[in-house]
């Protein structure tokens, strides 16, 4: 059976962050029964199509802010998936959470519902920088949320950001030192703040209203983060992700290894084999529109297209070379029927290997530490013109 990774998108937030370009909407009490019915219908639609050919490895509640969900809503979705798909005995079930006290109080409920991993959107433990990026929680909220999560879950992750407005290297050192010395988390995602088109920060940057670190300082910050993580026993297994041994995010590894995944909810997308053909899916972004279409058709897609060979090759390179696992040549050939050497510039591959940006052994091509910093450059060179 094919491995399957299930993503559940809960699109609602209490407020929108000025840097965020995710499919998020201000939280409102829409008709919860209708939305619950729409999640159910979409899950059942996929179970009818692929339950006999796929085994669920992970479930991931993302957003938006899924920690705004109620226990019974999370439990209902998990139970529905488990009752209609074959699932791994040790299935990983992650829920993203904000560190507000209201949501942290619900951690025990989420564990009772079946969640066994939480990922908390901390971003910083410094009140000044939380204010700079428009976060509504405080450093005390963040600290209490992580401590609470670590008491309840064995598998706790949180996000930190660097390259923030007005942030210096000294600020970064202080923030990450506190994070690494204070808690028993097993995973940290460390992201460089990116300015995405359509966000408030994009407009501010365009008008020179953001004081951001320059490229040289960002590179220094990236290296500092990597060294600090290593010193505390965290292995970098992807460009921005670090984990203690055995605590890598299995759900995200499914994406990066180009495995099949389905997206449930407004704006969610997927890649999945159905009847021997691999399709790209994308749901309608607006929650009410998505729900309306699901009620009519059983699925809320605005895009459902077979993936072209060229796009599949590009996806393999772009996703797999983000991780230390790299491209498993035999697996890609067996599962996706693609011979990677027939689809890349092998002279450029040799060049990248000679320059220690890529390594190749045991039928795998994977990036060096330097190569992880240059994924886009590597992919651009490997693609055949």
TrEMBL record:
Its main location: cytoplasm. GO terms for cellular component: cytoplasm. SMART domains: Elp3. Residues 1-235 form the Radical SAM core domain. Keywords: 4Fe-4S, Chaperone, Cytoplasm, Heme, Iron, Iron-sulfur, Metal-binding, S-adenosyl-L-methionine. Its cofactor is [4Fe-4S] cluster. It is found in: Cytoplasm. GO terms for molecular function: 4 iron, 4 sulfur cluster binding; coproporphyrinogen oxidase activity; metal ion binding. The keyword DNA repair does not apply. GO terms for biological process: porphyrin-containing compound biosynthetic process. The keyword ATP-binding does not apply. Probably acts as a heme chaperone, transferring heme to an unknown acceptor. Binds one molecule of heme per monomer, possibly covalently. Binds 1 [4Fe-4S] cluster. The cluster is coordinated with 3 cysteines and an exchangeable S-adenosyl-L-methionine. Belongs to the anaerobic coproporphyrinogen-III oxidase family. HemW subfamily. PANTHER family: COPROPORPHYRINIGEN III OXIDASE (PTHR13932), RADICAL S-ADENOSYL METHIONINE DOMAIN-CONTAINING PROTEIN 1, MITOCHONDRIAL (PTHR13932:SF5). This is Heme chaperone HemW. It comes from Candidatus Deianiraea vastatrix.
């Amino acid at each position: 059976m094919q491995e399957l990774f299930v993503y559940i998108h809960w699109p609602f937030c209490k407020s929108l962050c000025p840097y965020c370009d995710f499919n998020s909407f201000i939280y409102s009490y829409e008709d919860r029964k209708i939305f619950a019915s729409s999640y159910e219908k979409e899950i059942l639609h996929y179970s009818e199509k692929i339950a006999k050919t796929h085994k669920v490895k992970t479930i991931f509640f993302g957003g938006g802010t899924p920690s705004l969900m109620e226990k019974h809503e999370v439990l209902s979705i998990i139970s529905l998936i488990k009752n209609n798909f074959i699932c791994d005995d040790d299935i990983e079930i992650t829920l993203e959470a904000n560190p507000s006290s209201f949501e942290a109080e619900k951690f025990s409920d989420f564990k009772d519902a079946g969640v066994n991993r939480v990922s908390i959107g901390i971003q910083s433990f410094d009140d000044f920088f939380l204010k700079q990026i428009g976060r509504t929680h405080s450093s005390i909220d963040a600290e209490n949320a992580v401590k609470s999560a670590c008491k309840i879950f064995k598998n706790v992750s949180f996000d930190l950001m660097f390259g923030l407005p007005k942030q210096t290297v000294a600020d970064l050192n202080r923030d990450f030192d506190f994070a690494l010395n204070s808690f028993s988390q097993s995973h940290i995602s460390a992201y460089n703040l990116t300015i995405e088109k359509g966000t408030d920060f994009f407009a501010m940057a365009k008008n020179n209203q953001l004081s951001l670190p320059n490229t040289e300082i960002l590179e220094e910050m990236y290296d500092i983060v990597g060294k600090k993580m290593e010193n505390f026993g965290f292995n970098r297994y992807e460009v921005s992700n670090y984990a203690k041994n055995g605590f890598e995010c299995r759900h995200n590894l499914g994406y990066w290894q180009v495995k099949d995944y389905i997206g449930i909810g407004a704006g969610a997308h997927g890649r999945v084999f159905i009847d021997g053909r691999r399709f790209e899916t994308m749901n309608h972004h607006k929650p009410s529109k998505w729900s309306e279409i699901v009620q009519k058709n059983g699925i809320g897609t605005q895009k459902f297209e077979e993936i072209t060979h060229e796009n599949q090759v590009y996806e393999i390179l772009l996703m797999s070379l983000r991780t230390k696992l790299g491209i498993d040549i035999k697996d890609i050939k067996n599962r996706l029927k693609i011979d990677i050497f027939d689809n890349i510039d092998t002279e450029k591959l040799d060049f990248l290997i000679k320059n220690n940006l890529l390594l190749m052994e045991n039928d795998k091509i994977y990036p060096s530490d330097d190569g992880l910093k240059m994924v886009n450059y590597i992919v651009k060179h490997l693609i055949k013109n």
